[in-house]
């Protein structure tokens, strides 16, 4: 089974890209597909999370051999994500995400490349949307094929060319190409929320509705993403909240409708580097628009939002 051509992905074989390669099915398929489409200016990137002992080291060794076999430069680092999670007061999944982005930022600065390719696919998108739905984050748009993040002063363009491709298609591609990959035993562990959604919730939804609901969830994600992008453009296109030196004007926020208040605050908190911003965090900050409410609220990562002299700021 062939995958879509590079031309339809918006990628160029002449550009340099960082490629996140865990050694698992999806990232191996991504790297093989890129090479088959004529991309040669690639840098293989692998972060050892140090969570699975010898297996983590074996994954890193596999990726190192793979990159050498393909004649590609590679960067491999080890970050104790468990320790990082404790230090930052984060869950393992969020700590791992931050560690990967910081790693990509360092590699990107070294190679003067800010474009990062990841192997997320349509099933990952469904799991992300369901996770966001029941967490109450409001982000039903899930992941995007192209998005920009800022991490420790580095701007990264995250590209996901497989986001519209289902896991079954990638599995068929791997089988037909005879590609070797690493099986991550932690994917079967129900310690992680995403794994519980994959193993329990999605099959339960399929049985309850007696059909494959994943396509419907993917359509919801597409519609929500398009509407979310419209609101983001609306917020970014004008200074609706009276920003001055990273602060927001409380009187200006009061003039906005609730939906725009939430959108402005969500974008502002992310710009200020606040991690794991969800609905409850936004609502706590939004409560400070009322001057009779508290003037300080707690944020993830041991940070705080304050109201002083009719302005909101993060410390």
Your description of this structure?
The chain is α/β, with parallel strands linked by helices and 315 residues long. It has two domains: 8-197, HUPs (Rossmann fold, 3-Layer(aba) Sandwich); 240-314, Chorismate Mutase Domain, subunit A. It is 47% helix and 15% strand. It is built from eleven helices and ten strands. It has helices at 25-36, 54-70, 81-88, 92-111, 122-135, 167-177, 193-209, 214-236, 250-254, 258-271, 279-286, and strands spanning 17-20, 42-48, 74-78, 115-117, 146-151, 154-159, 248-249, 296-299, 303-308, 311-314. The chain has a six-stranded mixed β-sheet with strand order 3-2-1-4-6-5, with helices on both faces. Strands 7-10-9-8 form a four-stranded antiparallel β-sheet. Helix 1 (25-36) links the parallel strand 1 and strand 2. The longest helix is centred in the C-terminal third of the chain and has 23 residues, at 214-236. The model has no long low-confidence stretch (mean pLDDT 89).
Query: Helical stretch count?
Result: 11
| Helicity range | 40-55%
Looking at the structure, the CATH topology of the largest domain is: Rossmann fold
* Whole-number total of structural domains: 2
The proportion of residues in beta strands is 5-15%
CATH superfamily of the largest domain: HUPs
Q: Please, what is the average pLDDT?
A: 89
Secondary structure class reads alpha/beta
- Give the strand tally: 10
Biggest sheet details = 6 strands, mixed
Give the SSE string.
EHEHEHHEHEEHHHEHHHEEE
